Amino acid sequence: MDDRELLRRLAAGGSSGDALARDAGITRAAVWKRIEGLRAAGARIEARPGRGYVLTSPAELLDAGRLRAGLSTEAAALLHALDVAWAVDSTNSELLRRPPAPGVEVLLAERQNAGRGRLGRRWVSPLGGQVCVSVRRGFNGGLARLGGLSLVAGVAVAEALRASGYAAVGLKWPNDLVADGRKLAGLLVEGGGEHGGPVHAVIGIGINVDLGGEAGDIDQPWIDLARLGGGVPSRNALAIAVLDALLPALELFDREGLAPFEPRFAALDVLAGQPVRVLDGRGDFEGRALGLAPDGALRVATDAGERRVHAGEVSVRRR
After folding, report:
1. Which residues share a beta bridge with 15?
2. C-beta of residue 294 within 8 angstroms of C-beta of residue 258
3. N- to C-terminal Cα separation, the chain
4. What is the reported pTM?
5. Which helix (H) or strand (E) covers residue 19, if one does?
6. Which of 92, 100, 197, 282 sits in a 20 to 30 Å window from 111, CA-based?
7. CATH 3.90.650.10 fits 64-266, yes or no
8. Any catalytic annotation for residue 118?
9. What is the CATH architecture of 275-318?
10. Which residues contact 47 (CB under 8 A, 6 or more apart)?
């Protein structure tokens, strides 16, 4: 009985330590250690008289077969491989370690032990509380093409969430999904290749679904889908919706670049027209956000004229 099966057993109504030990062929002390490990990972497990160990807030586990079967015909045709891991250091790191394969590779994980965000920030991902997914794909046109990739991915994910009923979701340049002024999801693009030739990229996405009380390490205002109303959504259905939107979007980006996504980004842009402070190592400045430049830079109107800010160089905060 692995940890995945143990969670399923507890979600089905609870079991005593003796019954779990007997069925798993281990000692009751070993069961207790397994339970403590799951609690430390974020599972909400209580010991109740007469019922034993109970999962008080069941988390829907991801199912690779269900995900593949649920994809649209268009998205499925673009997919080479889809896997669900129990725990990895980072879905991005795991895909980057693997030998390149033809087509699109998708990796999801129930938990990341060392998830990464933009600018080296730690990405908190309690067990079953998020949809953590990375997508690896090749692109033509050289490394310069990757500059707009996080914007394209952000548009696709935000549109998928809105279509799933979360109308409050918007995009904060360059790669944060926000709702009610708080961070809902983030994206991280990594990869490499030739300056003027083929490149490969891994797009990592982390969406807060139901963080419960396990988000004490997050260092900024956050929100999850459960707090946006309507209860806790199906993580499998959410992952399917995201992949159905993202995989065709990446195909379009490879063919036509960023241009088709500029009006779609504008419809989601929460900074447009807002006063902003740009935190730049060369000197901070203030202005008013004007939307995207054709290369994906943020256009900012200042007293000295328009300035353009590129992803990876700055953090942008409303003031």
Report:
1. 53
2. yes
3. 52
4. 0.86
5. helix 17-24
6. 100
7. no
8. yes
9. Roll (2.30)
10. 53, 54
Tell me which of 33, 122, 317, 318 is the catalytic residue: 317
Q: Which two tokens stand for residue 1?
A: 């009985």
> Contact 117/123 with Cβ under 8 angstroms?
yes
Residue 293, class by beta-carbon neighbours within 10 Å (0-12 exposed, 13-18 middle, 19+ buried)?
A: middle
- Using CB atoms within 10 Å of the CB of residue 30, give its burial: 0 to 12 exposed, 13 to 18 middle, 19+ buried: middle
- pLDDT score at 169: 97
Q: Residue 120 has what DSSP assignment?
A: G
Angle (nearest 5°) at CA 260 between 256 and 266: 150
Active-site option among 118, 145, 182, 227:
118
What are the residue boundaries of the structural domains of the chain, listed by start? 3-55, 64-266, 275-318
What the block records as the tokens of 194 is 């030739």
pLDDT digits over 39-91, tens only? 877 778 888 887 888 887 767 889 999 999 999 999 999 999 999 998 898 99
* CATH of the domain spanning 3-55, picked from 3.30.720.210, 3.40.50.20, 3.40.190.10, 1.10.10.10: 1.10.10.10
Residue 317 falls in the annotated catalytic set:
yes
Q: How far is CA 115 from CA 36, 244, 261, in A?
A: 22, 24, 28
Q: Which residues pair with 208 in a beta bridge?
A: 130
Whether 183 is a known active-site residue: answer yes
Give the position of tokens 């988000």: 215
Q: Which of 34, 136, 172, 183 is catalytic?
A: 183
